[in-house]
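Would you kindly consider the sequence and fold I have copied below?
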Amino acid sequence: MKKQPTREKLLDITFEEVYKNGYSATSIDSILKIATVPKGSMYHHFKSKKELVLAMVNERLFPKMDEFFIFEIKDKKSVKESLRDTYSAMAKNRKLITYGCPLYRLMVELSPVDSDFDKLLSSKVIQMQNSLASMLQIGLDRGEFSNIEPIEMAKFILNATWGLLSLSPNLSSKKEFLKQSKIILQNLR
């Protein structure tokens, strides 16, 4: 097995630890222990925990969000069918259903208290809203539905989805997620 470079290892472990435990509950010491990396090696790549987590957001979290929230029309499907496929793929991701959306979790924890995180995380939310709104506009143009304002509906869909993903593990399941996602999509008429 090829040895993973230190920087990449730190980013991967930081993603997992912050995803499961949150920013505040994740310590540099716990990351270093799991990574089996000396503190000096971490500081060679990152000046602080904040810098490490900001890099992780850009290099690990944002690509994951693009995997989770696929806002594109595939195989000449309708917009609604494409969104159903996205929800179906999300429901198969046990970690996503159990721990929720990592972007949403970080936003709730850090946006109110740190402007650097707020700007960075908000930029991804806006990009996701715009991507979904473009998809919804295609549906409008095709006549798949009417009476929607694409950007407002995109905000509704994202917020409703994050609401579903923020339930405690006791209230969350693949079956319940799919059931509720159908209700979200019923708003597209």
Remarks:
- The mean pLDDT is 94.
- The radius of gyration is 18 Å.
- The chain has two domains: 1-57, 69-189.
- Residues 2 and 65 are 27 Å apart (CA to CA).
